[in-house]
Amino acid sequence: MALWGGRFTQAADTRFKQFNDSLRFDYRLAEQDIVGSIAWSKSLRSVGVLTAAEQKQLELALNELKLSVMEDPEQILKSDAEDIHSWVEQQLIDRVGDLGKKLHTGRSRNDQVATDLKLWCRQQGQQLLLALDKLQDQLVTVASENQTTVLPGYTHLQRAQPVTFAHWCLAYVEMFERDYSRLSDAMNRFDTCPLGSGALAGTAYPIDREALAHSLGFQRATRNSLDSVSDRDHVMELMSVASVSMLHLSRMAEDLIFYNSGESNFIELADTVTSGSSLMPQKKNPDALELIRGKTGRVYGAMASMMMTVKALPLAYNKDMQEDKEGLFDALDTWFDCLEMATLCFEGITINAQRTLEAAMQGYSNATELADYLVAKGIPFREAHHIVGVAVVTAIGKSCALEELSLDEMKAFSEVIEDDVYPILTIESCLEKRCALGGVASDQVSYAISEAEKRLESR
Ligand code: ARG
């Protein structure tokens, strides 16, 4: 039975009912709706709408319902209730009779759905914090195992200067750390309880809303009833945090897809996260990574769709807002799955250190070292840059590396070059020279690893 039949003389068209009903997706709020209802029943008792015995009876029935829902959430989908709020109320009435009809006193589905969704966002946010944490943890593990694994560093996808695989991992640890902080920050901001705001103007019962907020684990009650029922900032904030994090995941996936290509051959992904081709027997495709990259678009789509849905809504609640859930659920599910999948990819990754070293030694990524060497010998940098450019062209002509040029050949570029140039041109030297904070030198990398470990342990 609908919650609002009295005013109507005609039944809803079945097509409208299908169009209007939200149970098929908001059934995911069942637990939150029940928990919110228990808290509300206590508020009703505190203002004398329910007796202590009535409240106890409702609480008992709601707790039973919660257990049953947790065991079998799919049962909800068999109902033709309009939404999760109607479903919970109907179940309650089935269990305790007319007493169940008292629960909605002073409450509206508008403050109810806002509360349910915030509770859900908080729970999901906590799962996501954990998933971000796990991925960082895995990256730090791979980093500590690969402190001496040399990797070509790129700009413009051209080999630029050598780095280490550890340094590359730690770059993504930084990105996921910012995502973690953004998510915590957003969660902190929406830690406010809308329940007791009524339909829009506030509830007509003298309920202690701060106490109600605390009983549901919120920091405080929301301050304005109109805002309370129409605010969906938390939905948009979560989706924007998800979007930025998906961007990080997608860039990481793209790097790894490239490293995994036959042309690079830097890494091999485990069989557990790859798939084959139906036609080409030799293929092992990086599907997990490609899907991470691909799913990024759909998270952005959900965010854009939500912004457009809300942008022209007058205060306060409008049914348009029911459109908030599917996109949010999908975006956060997708983000969670991608974090988990990325973690899984690193668990089984094999790094071909011989190949990454070879690649780092090709491509003249020690050219900057030669220029710095000339500068140290008194040549102005701009001139040194030009000299080394000529040296690189010469080496390319001879199909050799800079360090393979003889001293005589070197001297043809500049008289100041001596035998001491060769140690400068080694990969070790390239790496170790970058010893300022945040650089790729081994001390800096091991310092970064221990700082990241400390950070992860302290949460
Ligand atoms: N299913 C609705 C939603 O998701 C619940 C709130 C309904 N409120 C109303 N006044 N019709 O937004």
Let me know the average pLDDT. 96
Order of helices and strands: HHHHHHEEHEHEHHEHHEHHHHHHH
The largest beta-sheet arranges its strands as: 1-2
**Associated small molecules:** arginine
Instruction: List how many beta strands DSSP finds.
Output: 6
Number of continuous helical runs: 19
Based on Cα principal axes, name the global outline: elongated
Biggest sheet overview: 2 strands, antiparallel
Percent in strands: under 5%
Radius of gyration: 30 Å
EC number: 4.3.2.1
Catalytic activity: 2-(N(omega)-L-arginino)succinate = fumarate + L-arginine
Subcellular location: Cytoplasm
GO molecular function: acyltransferase activity, transferring groups other than amino-acyl groups; argininosuccinate lyase activity
List keywords for this structure.
two-stranded parallel sheet, single chain, mainly alpha, 19 helices, 5% strand, elongated, 459 residues, binds arginine, two-stranded antiparallel sheet, acyltransferase
Description:
With about 450 residues, the chain is mainly α. It has 19 helices and 6 strands. The chain has helices spanning about 15-20, 25, 30-45, 50-70, 85-95, 110-145, 165-190, 210-215, 225-230, 235-260, 285-310, 325-345, 355-360, 365-375, 380-395, 405-415, 420-425, 425-430, 440-455; strands spanning about 150-155, 160-165, 190-195, 220, 265-270, 350. Helix 4 crosses helix 5, helix 6 (about 110-145) runs antiparallel to helix 19 (about 440-455) and helix 10 (about 235-260) packs parallel to helix 12 (about 325-345). The mean pLDDT is about 95. The site of arginine (ARG) has 10 residues, from helix 6.
